Each structure stands twice: as structure tokens, then as C-alpha cells.
Amino acid sequence: MYLLYTIAASLISFLFLKWLKRRRFCMDLKRLDGKTVLITGGNAGVGKETAIALAIRGARVIIACRDTERSEKAVREIKRTSHNVNVIQMELDLANLRAIREFCKTFLQREKRLDILINNAGMPSVLDWTDDSFSMCFGVNHLGHFLLTNLLLGRLKESAPSRVITLTCSAYKYQKLDFQDLNYNLFPFFTYCRSKLANIYFTQELARMMEGKGVTAYSVHPGYMQSNWTCHYSILFRVVMQAIMFMFFVTCEVGAQTVVYCAVADEVVPHSGGYFLDCRHAALRPFAKDSGVAKKLWEASERLVKLI
């Protein structure tokens, strides 16, 4: 009898955990024929699932990644799954500002439209540095996408109405920005949190600057997902995290739903600059809605990437 109770309790606990992992799905099946979508880091995880979902809707999908071999494999899989042959890859290293400029130059020469830019690629909390001596998290997660978006902004305006979607994380709430040390890299997790907060401020200021110009912007927390982000860590850490992710984290397909929602749904347009999760507009902590900080970060970022 004790064994039966144990099995029943385990089953109930497992089903409860599965219930906790339920997330909303994007039910908007709007077609994107004739639209061009650029997704950074679209060769794996939530980026790849987003690419599949938008390719199914008929978009021309470009995945921009550093690893060409993995990208080519992902393109084949996306084409096969979506039955859309209009999917390509381009090489992009977000940890190198010169490489970003070269990428944008090539993109603008090849592509006449850019309807949806999805700043998806990101680095977890690792103690490392970019080629330009920025902390890896801040350099890739914020500065790399900041420069990329600015260099492609003209094409986005020409293709209006267009959208910029930047992936962030609810971990933003654990840190605030220090303008005396934006390149902070002492505790990797704190650096990650700050980079995700920077994504939110970036989205807000971009939305303010593009008001009335046909470009809207959204920051998205896709949820905590069963992705390959643990590849940057030790084997022991990966094993432990795989077990935790199986129990508590959502699949990348589910995580992509809010990104897809912000890419296609009409009801998000009035919420440009907003923060989204579970396919809905969500509230932010008060300090993350400071327009003065958002403007200050934008100006500091312009200097750091030498846009001014």
C-alpha cells in the first residue's frame, strides 16, 4: 500500500509540474508572404523554433549566426519542417563590432526589405570578453544587437510597418544598471541580468524614437527553456541542469510562442516599447520603466559602438 501511495504521489507531482509548465500558444495564423524576417541565433533553440513558425507562415527567413556549418544544417531542417524553401543563412558574429558592420553592409546590398528583426541570439552568464573588450553578456546581448538594429533601421523604416523584437529575461529584476561600470563583469549572473535589463531599456527608447515612423518594438521574455545554453559550462552542471530543465522548463517550441505573437499579432501594435510574456503584455518593475535611464543608456551605447 505504501508503494502505491508513493507512486500516486509521484505521478501527481509530475503532472502538477507539467501543469505549471503550460504556456499560452500564439493562435494568430496570419500569413507573412512577401515579408522578410531576420533572426539572430536562428540555428538552434527558441530562434530556430521561431524561424520554423514564421517560415510556415510564408515569410522569407534569414538566420544570422556565427557557426556557418550549424546554420546550414538548421536551414535544411527549417525548410523541411516548414515546406518553405525561402530560408537562408548569413554569417554574423555579434561579439565583433566590425563583423556586425560587414554583415549589415552585405545584408543591405542583398535584401530590399526587412519587415521583422528578431534580436534573439544571446550569451548566458559567462565570464568572457568580446573582441572589442566588452563583457560577453553586455557586448553580445545588448551592444551587438544595438549596433545591428541601428545599422538596419533605415531598411526597417523603408519596409514599414515593421517590427523589432528583442528577447530579454525576467532576471532583469535582480539588477540595476551602473553607468560608472556598464562593462561590469565581476559576477557573471549579475552581468547577464544587467544585459537583459538593457534589452528592455533599448526597446523602450527605440519605440519612443520610432513613434510615428512605422517601426514598433517589443521586448519578450520567452520563459525558461530546455535549450542548449548549458553547453558553456561543465559536464556536471549540464547534467544537473538537464534534470531541472526537464521538470520545470518549457520546450523551445513553447518558448517561441510569445516571439511569434509579437511578430504577427495586430493587438501588440499599441503596446510598442512593451514587455511581453505568455503571449500577453506584462508589467515591469518600476525601475525598468525609467525613460531617463533608457535615453541615457541609448546615448552611452552610441558612444561605445562608435555610432557618434
From TrEMBL:
Keywords: Oxidoreductase. InterPro entries: NAD(P)-bd_dom_sf (IPR036291), SDR_fam (IPR002347). It holds the Pfam family adh_short. One of its GO terms (molecular function) is oxidoreductase activity. It comes from the Eukaryota. Belongs to the short-chain dehydrogenases/reductases (SDR) family. PANTHER family: PHOSPHATIDYLINOSITOL-GLYCAN BIOSYNTHESIS CLASS F PROTEIN-RELATED, RETINOL DEHYDROGENASE 14. This is Retinol dehydrogenase 11. It comes from Aldrovandia affinis.
